[in-house]
Design a protein that fits this description.
Layout: E1 4-9, H1 14-25, E2 31-34, E3 42-49, E4 52-59, E5 64-67, E6 71-76, H2 91-110, E7 115-117, H3 120-125, H4 129-138, E8 146-149, H5 152-161, E9 166-168, E10 194-195, E11 212-216, E12 222-229, E13 232-238, E14 259-261, H6 266-278, E15 283-290, E16 296-302, H7 308-313, H8 319-336
Parallel strand pairs: 1-2, 1-6, 6-7
Antiparallel strand pairs: 3-4, 4-5, 8-11, 9-10, 9-11, 12-13, 12-15, 13-14, 15-16
Length: 338
Amino acid sequence: MPKRVLIVTKRADLHADIVSAKLAAAGGNPFRLNLDEFPKHFALNLEFARGRWEGELVHLPTGEALSVSDIGAVWMRKKASFNFLSADLSPQERAYAEGEMEHMLFSLLYSLDCYWMSHPAALRGASWKGEQLLRAARLGFHVPPSLVTNRRGGVDAFRAKMDGDIVFKSLSTPTLAAEQVALEERIAGTLPTTRITDEHEEALDAVVELPSFFQQHVPKRYELRVTVIGDRVFAARIDSQEDPRTETDFRDFSAEIRYAAERLPPDIERRCLELVHSYGLNYGAIDLIVTPGGEYVFLENNPVGQFLFIEQLVPELDMTGAMAACLTEGARARERAP
């Protein structure tokens, strides 16, 4: 029986849409588990017997079934809140239901012997930005001086030590957790990486509320988004200094700056692969700065980062095709396993 690829995501996920189509075109048979439809639109029936879990997951609207024994690869693509049959659960009922579903889902996933893009435990371990800086430095990357503090005096002292400006950035999410609350409860949008200037003097007093993250501002010639898929490395040059709106944070897509494929020096490509693989990951989206002096500076690695926007801007970087091929080969390798 050919092994199948399980894609764990949510309904609105264009990455999963495109990769699923490429998997199907290559003769694969992906199964998509949208967590924002789970368990409402799915039936789960598992039994522990003969020393293993057996059973299946069925998508009720279509009747498509996935046997646990047929899963050869899993792509952990996107998180989402569970969706239950009853819409009027009390807060306690919903909290209990979510806890139970999380236990059941991850009990199943952790029991699978398959190819991972990437394993939940590896994703969790790779998500801490502060630890990433230490690991990147050990691999030979230059890492900017950084500070975590909830004292205004700490910020002032750090600024005084830096020969130039500093930047503030969020560690968990630049959306200020807006996606975690109802639309009517949102009070702010995104918070990009921000270069601290005199106009932020009063705002800096707010660091007493919670520890905040600051780094030395690094001059840029250009930026790089380096995407690792399996053993392949895709590098895109981002000419962020062409527009004032993207000088500090390139993620202002209203600015029409240039993106182009970039060939990395062999030692930088090797470090990127080593960094991602050191976590047990098969995927990573790494942000680097190239300084006017040609130095490569590590900023962060997102273990589930977006890559489609890069492919759309630089079509020669066929990352959706690489993702489909990697998952297909990973699943087929499980067919050949004894």
